[in-house]
Amino acid sequence: MRLLGDPSAYLRMVFVLIGSGLALSFGLLDATVIASLVLSGAVPIWIVVLLGTLLVAAPVVGFGLVPASRSIEAAAAESLLGVRFPDGTPGPALDWAQRRRSLGWFACHLLAGAVPVALVLLALAVGDPAWVTVCGVAALVATFALGQGLAALAPSLLGPSRAERIAALERDVHRAVQRNRIAREIHDGVGHALSLVTVQAAAARRVIDRDPRFAAAALDAIEQAARSATADLDQALGLLREEGSPSRHPAPDLSAVATLLATIRSAGLQVRADVPPDIAGVRPAAVSREAYRIVQEALTNALRYADPPQATVTIELSGGDLRVTVDNPAAPPSGRRRTATGRTGRGLRGIEERAAALGGTMTAGPVDGRWRLAVRLPVTGGAP
User: Fold this and answer.
1) What CA–CA distance (Å, rounded) separates 110 from 103?
2) Is residue 102 over pLDDT 50?
3) Of 84, 108, 134, 299, which has the fewest CB atoms closer than 10 Å, so is most exposed?
C-alpha cells in the first residue's frame, strides 16, 4: 500500500517495464530461431540450445560492455529510479572493472524485466480466469518491488568504484595543493609589492612638501612595485585558469635576486647581501624559484618590522644544499597579528611550506637580539 501511494514507485515500474520490453524482444528472437531449427529437424538439439544461448548472450554482453552503456543506464536510473549519485551522473566505463559492473547492472535490468513477462506468459498459457487474476496481481507487485530493488542496487553497480573514489580523492588533494601554491604566490608576490607601495606612499606623504625629490623617487618605486605586482598577479591567474600556454611572465628565480635587492633598497631597507655570482645556475629550477620567493618574503618582513631598517642576506651552496639566511635587528610579532600595513602575517608559514615541499627545512626566531630566518633546500636530484 505504501508503494501504491508513492508517485516515484510508478516511475520505477516504467524502468522495470523497459527491461521487460528488452527481455521480450530477445525472447521472441530466440524463440523464433529455435522453433525454426527444431521444426526443420536437421539440426542436433545441442546446437539448437547453443545457438539459442548465443542469440541472447551476445547482444546482452555486447551492450553491457560498451563504455557508453554505463552513462545511458545511469541517466535512466536517475530519471526513473530516482537514484542520486554523489559525484554526479557517472560517465562512460573507462576500464574493464567498470565495464563488468555495467554488464552486471544491465543483466539485472533484463532479469528484473523478465519476471513480469514470465508471469503474464504463464497466465496466458493457463487460461484460467482466476489464475490470470493471480498472475496479474503478482506481476504488478513484482514490478513495484523489483523497481525498489533496482533503485537500491544502482549506486553500487553504476556508481563510482573504489578505484574511482581513490582517483577522485587524489584529484581533490591535487587541487588543494595547487590552490595552496597559488595562495602562496599571491601572498609572496603581490603582497610583497603592496607592502612596498604602502611603505613608500607613507614616506612620500610625510616628506612631499620639504623633499620633493625623495617623494618623486618613492613614487617611481611605487610604479615599479605595481608593475611587478601586475606580472605576479598575471602568473597567479594563469595558474587558476589552468591555461595550456605558458604565462607571459614566467615565475622569477634567483637570477632576479639582484633586481629584488635593488627594489627593496629603494624602499628604504638597508640590505647587506652575500650572494655567489653563479647562484642563478642553481638546479633544480624549482629550488631557484622557491628560494627567490623565500628571500622576497623575508625581506618584506624585514621592511615592515626591522628597527633600524636593516637586513643581512646570505645565500650559499654547501654540501649539496642551498642555504638562505636573512636576519634583521628586530623580531617580527609572533603569531598571526595584524601589521602596520593592515595585512595579516602568513609569511613564515608559507616559507615553511615551500621548504617542506622541496624536502628542506626552515627555522626562524630571535638569535642574539636579532631575528634570524634560516632555510635549507636540497639541490641534488629532483626535476627542474
Assistant:
1) 11
2) yes
3) 84
